[in-house]
């Protein structure tokens, strides 16, 4: 009788374990489904602006197809006429037009027809007067972004034309002070100005007194709508940027659709929404000299005082080639970030360093939470598929928080050095990182993590081996390898 009882228990126990395992998986599915339902509700809030069916062709306002002649005044005249006339399209026809800074106004769609190119001047005088801008998350008065809007609504940049920032190793890029980008010893560069601006931010100098421009060598971003709403950037190709490419700051309701960014200069991030809310980035192509998409919310005191997190972002159906990271949060993230969703992405390049990258420090502070990534197909990358780095900058007095990150259906054919890499503070471990139904092949170090809390791997294989709880535990006990 005792033998029968033991046989029954032996039969029941595995079934109980299976039921328990099934319940856990079902619960996890329910949690992720609920999260993506939130994404759907966010999507419903993001509505691209529409415009009156009126065209204002820049050649009718004096724009010259001779690419050696500035057409800035003509473009401004067309924008003003469109704005005053109730809105519509400011049309750039086929041809190459040289211009300085372009300032968009409400209800204006800057539309580039097939074969049209806006070629931006290399003369800093064409980016004056100085405007209120953000430079690497710090507010200041600097050269105007190449395309700028402040306090506007219902604005767009559309069409199949090309935006050419005209930067190279002789123009704009050497200001970074990197030899690989044309700088040689003794040349002017940004280093002193960055140090000065960082101190001005720390000392809380009023923004209008943080005067840069001439003598500072702070490169302007390409496209920066600032404190604006209802924005569409669609179909254009962006090349040769001086600095960051698409950088909406303190904006709401932003759509970036079917845009191609191909530029390999220093800090040539593809799309950096900063302290913005309700952002959709879809069907885009990024091949960049820095992060492909980097979500930000201000640096240090500026980010904390303004206190506007990056929130409600959806990234989908994009392709990433070269870059420091595919989907990135930070490092200018002092205002925090929440409700970030990325899905259906393709990444593949030996010059793509990371797939999902979170970079912060106790100099930055801020809360990064509720990040959901799924359905990512990766050929190869260089450093890590998932990276949380809390030592990106020098330490400070504002401990960051990173929590609630779910990565699902991540498939890597040939990984780089690390599969998952967590470098966190003991006082603030990375919390609730979950990787589900994923496969990573070809990495040197499957998991390296020092301080985590609630990290889980569910149905994850790395280098052909199913990741167990013991593997996760041993990853934190092994000697931490620098990277």
Automatic annotation (TrEMBL):
What PROSITE patterns does the database record attribute to this sequence?
A: POLYGALACTURONASE (PS00502), PROKAR_LIPOPROTEIN (PS51257)
Regarding protein family, the annotation reads:
Belongs to the glycosyl hydrolase 28 family.
UniProt keyword list: Glycosidase, Hydrolase
User: Would you tell me the protein name for this molecule?
Assistant: Glycoside hydrolase family 28 protein
Any Pfam family matching the protein: Glyco_hydro_28
For this protein, the record's InterPro entries field holds: GH28_Enzymes (IPR051801), Glyco_hydro_28 (IPR000743), PbH1 (IPR006626), Pectin_lyas_fold (IPR012334), Pectin_lyase_fold/virulence (IPR011050)
Domain of life, per lineage: Bacteria
A GO molecular function annotation here is:
polygalacturonase activity
Which GO BP terms sit in this record?
Answer: carbohydrate metabolic process
Which residue windows are transmembrane per the record?
none
The protein's organism comes out as: Sphingobacterium phlebotomi
């Amino acid at each position: 009788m005792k033998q029968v009882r033991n046989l029954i228990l032996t039969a029941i126990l595995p079934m109980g374990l299976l039921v328990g395992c099934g319940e856990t998986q079902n619960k996890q599915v329910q949690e992720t489904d609920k999260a993506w339902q939130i994404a759907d509700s966010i999507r419903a809030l993001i509505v691209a602006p529409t415009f009156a069916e009126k065209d204002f062709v820049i050649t009718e306002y004096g724009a010259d197809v001779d690419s050696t002649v500035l057409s800035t005044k003509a473009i401004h005249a067309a924008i003003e006429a469109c704005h005053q006339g109730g809105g519509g399209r400011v049309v750039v026809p086929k041809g190459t037009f040289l211009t300085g800074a372009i300032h968009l106004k409400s209800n204006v769609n800057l539309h580039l027809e097939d074969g049209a190119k806006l070629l931006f001047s290399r003369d800093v005088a064409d980016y004056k007067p100085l405007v209120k801008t953000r430079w690497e998350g710090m507010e200041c008065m600097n050269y105007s972004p190449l395309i700028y809007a402040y306090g506007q609504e219902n604005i767009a940049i559309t069409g199949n034309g090309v935006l050419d920032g005209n930067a190279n190793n002789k123009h704009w890029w050497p200001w970074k002070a990197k030899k690989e980008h044309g700088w040689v010893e003794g040349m002017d560069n940004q280093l002193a100005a960055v140090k000065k601006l960082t101190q001005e931010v720390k000392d809380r100098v009023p923004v209008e007194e943080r005067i840069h421009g001439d003598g500072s060598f702070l490169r302007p971003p390409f496209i920066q709508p600032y404190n604006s709403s209802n924005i569409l950037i669609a179909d254009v190709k962006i090349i040769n940027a001086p600095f960051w490419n698409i950088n909406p700051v303190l904006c709401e309701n932003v759509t970036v659709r079917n845009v191609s960014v191909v530029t390999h200069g220093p800090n040539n991030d593809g799309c950096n929404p900063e302290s913005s809310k309700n952002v959709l980035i879809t069907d885009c192509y990024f091949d960049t000299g820095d992060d492909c998409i980097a979500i930000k919310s201000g640096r240090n005191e500026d980010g904390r005082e303004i206190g506007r997190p990056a929130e409600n972002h959806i990234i989908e159906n994009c392709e990433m080639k070269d870059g420091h990271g595919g989907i990135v949060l930070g490092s200018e993230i002092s205002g925090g970030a929440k409700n970030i969703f990325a899905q259906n992405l393709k990444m593949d390049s030996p010059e793509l360093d990371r797939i999902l990258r979170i970079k912060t420090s106790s100099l930055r502070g801020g809360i990064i939470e509720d990040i959901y990534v799924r359905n990512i197909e990766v050929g190869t990358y260089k450093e890590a598929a998932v990276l949380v780095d809390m030592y990106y900058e020098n330490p400070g007095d504002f401990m960051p928080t990173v929590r609630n990150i779910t990565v699902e259906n991540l498939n890597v054919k040939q990984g780089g050095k690390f599969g998952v890499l967590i470098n966190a503070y003991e006082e603030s471990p990375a919390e609730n990182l979950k990787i589900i139904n994923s496969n990573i092949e070809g990495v040197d170090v499957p998991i390296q993590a020092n301080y985590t809390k609630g990290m889980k791997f569910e149905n994850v294989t790395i280098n052909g081996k199913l990741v167990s709880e013991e593997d996760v535990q041993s990853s934190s006990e092994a000697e931490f390898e620098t990277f």
